[in-house]
Amino acid sequence: MAGQISPTRSALLASKASLKTASGGADLLKRKRDALIGEFFALVKDALAAREQLSGVSKGAYTSLFSAKAWDSPEAVESLSLAGTGDYAIDMQIDNLYGVKVPRINIPERAAAANFSPINVGARTIQAATDFNGVLEAIVKVAATETKLRRIGEEIKKTSRRVNALEQVVIPGIEDDIRFIRGVLDQREREAGFTQKKIKAKIEAKSKAAREAATAQGDYNAAD
After folding, report:
1. Which InterPro entries does this one have (predicted)?
2. Residue 51 has pLDDT above 60, yes or no
3. Which CB contacts under 8 angstroms, 24+ apart, belong to 72-75?
4. Nearest CA-CA partner of 177 in 148, 169, 101
5. In whole angstroms, what is the distance from residue 17 CA to residue 68 CA?
6. What's the alpha-carbon Rg for the chain, to the nearest Å?
């Protein structure tokens, strides 16, 4: 960049202002990254807990399902599974976390009992249906938590790349410009000082020669 910049005092002031802006931007991005990293690790605990909950309720639900099939026959259980509506509405909102759009999902309350008539339905089948409602809720929790975790992780990577670009490319480039401009201006000042000394020396030499000529002329006139 040094070869493309005009080595003037105005350019030096502009480069200093750019350096201040870039340094301030890097500091802000680092603070944002640190805050996001804190949120990320806090959310990892929630994600692990949600996964653990899903694993637990899934094991219980499949145990109930196998028991229901054994007691009420697989055909009866599968037939009853089609009685559900299949609808599962969730309330999702978007939160702004340090400039990152992340989902916030509110899991609706569901009835604990199955949504079919318990007449001629075994207790184990009803329990299996209830347990799988819990599995559905656990899946939604995992999806919401891990989606938020992935968004934050992507933003951390993006912010880190911006910080690295500023600290490793932009700021060093501006500092090179400043050193280049200062070097040229210092050289110009030295050259101007040297030129002024030469001019001053010439003027003094001419003045001295003029005084000597005037003195010689006065001596000559006195001799006549």
Report:
1. V_ATPase_D
2. yes
3. 72/121, 72/122, 72/124, 72/125
4. 169
5. 74
6. 41
